[in-house]
Amino acid sequence: MTTILLPIIIIVLFLLRQNLIVILGTVTAYSYWAFGDAVISNIVVDAWDAANKDILLSIPLFILAGNIMSKGGMASRLIDLMTALTAPIPGGLAIATILSCAAFAAVSGSGTVTLLAIGTLMYPALINAGYPKNFALGALCAAGTLGIVVPPSIPLILYGIMTQTSIGDLFLAGIMPALLLTFLMLSYAIFQNFGHREGKWDIKYILKTLKNGIWALLMPIIILGGIYTGYFTATESAAVAVVYSIVIETFIHKEMKFKLLFNVVSDTTKLLGSLFPVLMIALSLNVFLTYEEVPQSLVAWLSQRIDNPVSALLGINLFLLLIGCIIDIGSAILILAPMLNPIAESQGIDPIHFGIIMVMNLEIGYLTPPLGLNLIVAMGVFKESFWTVCKATIPFLIIMLVGLMLVSFVPRISLFMVQ
Q: What is the pTM of this model?
């Protein structure tokens, strides 16, 4: 009876439109009471033990660094540089848009921040230059998601925490898939806009924009270089990112005044106030599930029904694509990563490779209704209807699905830089 009640409770909470912390907290408390030792106070003990990790510090620090750079001048400087470099290429402004999103995603680590920072500047520019509205909407929505898999990626950090996988290796594994997606989007942009040519190369202007944008381009190099040369850990790299962003925006670009910096820190703190309670409860539930050997039981059950890695990957990909339509990426990773990772490992799938697959699947969820976050943000920012934005993203959804299949079934793409 207690087992039957759990899905009923979850369904009722969803129907009542409760937020994630209420649902997750109720499920965790019920699990401890019904299936554990009936001591609900152990939730607090387990949450503290699970959350007592240095790597958790990297999440607020990377978010803060990304917010500082999005409010400063790095986005506009990157756009100027990419526009100067791509001017004579067919579809140059479209290419500059996608490259700007990719570059800023590597700096901010956030898909939504990238869409807002780049989109508000590039959408009017694309429309004024005569690019189709549907292409402009689709390109910005899709390229904005590159921040999900480009290091420093918050979803990759969450996956690493929940599965005890190396954050540094996940960061490195995300580079080639991100480059692959960027290449596919660029190819489509050139094909669709071959008749658009914005101008010619101006060496003086390129050098000027390079000088202005070099500080933003150096940041991911410093972060990844520092991690893999052993100068600092993944957590310490987050602190380096915050200090670097403050120094650049305050003393070099001189666009981050104290009042603005205070507001950015305040906004980031509010965001973390909603994120960390959910993370703590999810970690507590993870401890409980591991203690009760739920993942092992699930693996044993599925192993009798899945007899090869190909069918496992196809099934998991389809499941995650559906989950991405209805659950945000952070929640999906917190809930599902500890359960799906052992299943993948049982089929011989590398946990680092699987982490990239999981994040790429959920990345596509940013572009799928009804809860696609980038669709909703684009609808508000660009003043277009929800379904107009949805239709505009269809070609890019197909491109991202092609990229997902390539990464899923060619592990070397994600593991090339790790092994």
A: 0.78
